Amino acid sequence: xxASEEQLKAWMxxxxxxxxxxxxxxxxxxxxxxxxxxxxxxxxxxxxxxDLVQETLISVHTKRESYDRDxxxxxxxxxxxRYRLIDHYRRxxxxxxxxxVEAILVAEGFxxxxxxxxxxxxxxxxxxxxxxxxxxxxHIDGLSVSEAAVRAGIGESDxxxxxxxxxxxxxxxxxxxDRR
Amino acid sequence: MNTDDLxxxxxxxxxxxxxxxxxxxxxxxxxxxxxxTMILVTAILGIRPDLRVAMHGFSFWMKWxxxxxxxxxxxxxxxxxxxxxxxxxxxxxxxxxPVLLLAGIGIGELVDTPSRDWxxxxxxxxxxxxxxxxxxxxxxxxxxxxxSFRRMAPTRLRAAGAAAGLAAGAWAATIYCxxxxxxxxxxxxxxxxxxxxxxxxxxxxxGPKLMRW
Lengths: 180, 213
Known about the structure:
The complex is a heterodimer.
Chain A: H1 5-16, H2 20-42, H3 46-62, H4 73-92, H5 98-115, H6 120-124, H7 129-140, H8 145-152, H9 156-178
Helix pairs in contact in A: 1-2, 2-3, 3-4, 4-5, 5-9, 7-8, 7-9, 8-9
Chain B: H1 3-10, H2 21-45, H3 51-54, H4 58-81, H5 96-112, H6 118-123, H7 130-149, H8 157-176, H9 185-210
């Protein structure tokens, strides 16, 4: 089971105060989280996933001074993980289809928000039922786009568009609320 | 290397991190670079001989207020871009305020000056060198800021580079004021700003290469 934001942040803060054991706990707990994060995005390239997990752990360690103690830990973590992924694509000169770029960029805003322990149900209820259902299926229940399309009885492109628009709306709303 | 071994190795080196680490690193980088710029200005260009008198005048403080307000705004942007989490930079339009104020003063000057003197006022005695000097003097501060970024994690590298260049340019211009005897607002508005913008452009150009991590 994934550790909570509070637990992760507590370990991070302990590490920043010089507690090596807390830091080790944090890094160990991040491994399955990061594997999941990269697996979902790289589909099948297991070696790359493990490389990226290690590179991200190193970044979390060497860039720990860039963490702002007043902000959610997971938002910081996924910002670093996303940077590592984009850097990975850049080094491999991989061309990413535009829809995947959107998934990398937009979905992350959403992921940060959920990990900041906002109430997902309350957020989704502000969207149209179709968008909420599409997001729930593909991003929370982990269905593929085609499975979600079958389950909702709509076309695949309809699912993609609903997810994209819904996440965009949510991201805009969260940015608005989160502006400091 | 296997992931568990990696974690063990990393956990061997966990120094304490100060709560104000970002401010401290930025300050060290800025001051370090600023000292080099200061040495260049005093040793090569020379402080203007009438500095004491000028410091009681309007135009000196007009110039400093302009360059300092840009410098403070840019440093604030740098501090936001040094961290990986997304931030809104919409407040950056506030940097237009000093520019517009200076433009207002400039228009006032033009109204008070006969139009045959406008060109001389605009070009001053140093328009050919001023932007290049500001750009050159910005480089030590820019390098200092690059050092500050080494432990930081910027994710928008071009924006971070531009902000660092802007900050370096504005602070270099502030130090350059100690040498430069120009007095007119439209001179500062054109040639100082050009130097500062050039520094920001250089930062935006090379930022993505130098700030990658």
